[in-house]
Amino acid sequence: MSAGTGRRRSTGRPLSNAASRPIPAGARSGAGSRPDARRPGRRTPRQASRPAAARRPLVTGRGVLLVGLLLLLALTLAGPVRQWLEGRAELARLAAESTAHDERIADLQAQLARQSDPDWAAREARERLAYVLPGDRLVVVVDGEAAEGDAGTLPDAPDTTARPWYEELLGSVAEADQAGR
Fold first, then answer.
1. Contact, 121 vs 127, CB < 8 A?
2. pLDDT value of position 152
3. Fewest C-beta in 10 Å: which of 13, 21, 122, 127?
4. Could you give the CA distance from residue 99 to residue 92 in angstroms, rounded to a whole number?
5. Residue 139 · residue 153 · CB < 8 Å
6. Would you say residue 34 lies in a domain?
7. Which domain, by its residues, includes 117?
8. Based on the structure, what is the number of domains in the chain?
9. pTM, 2 dp
């Protein structure tokens, strides 16, 4: 091996007169020049004779570590994700409650506006409380019979003056005696 032929020395270092620039990947000398280059898709006889038990195992140390890390990550994130979902549900519940309160406010404001009308108040007083204006005639139906009278007067009530206790006692004995016959 001479220094002028451009071959490498036995130490593996390039010659001092060799170019120090990088060589492009496709321009390597000897790349693809082997006559027995393997074709893709063909097995070598050594691979074909490998027994089935010598294949890679399904569970490896890296696989177990990866699954463990994924489980740890899932357990770490489970609490915050659950709290986030509960917070979203609480926000939705509060928004629905707020909408219901807004509708109730609108209904009460409409009722207040309606009740501030004097005609409505007079109509409700006539219907609910049996009020009449001066000069109107009031007709009240009691037990299917019409009882008439002037506005503001009451029908005659039975005499409810208090009797002494002994008269009450004798009256109740007399009523019991008549009921037993």
1. no
2. 52
3. 21
4. 11
5. no
6. no
7. 61-131
8. 1
9. 0.36
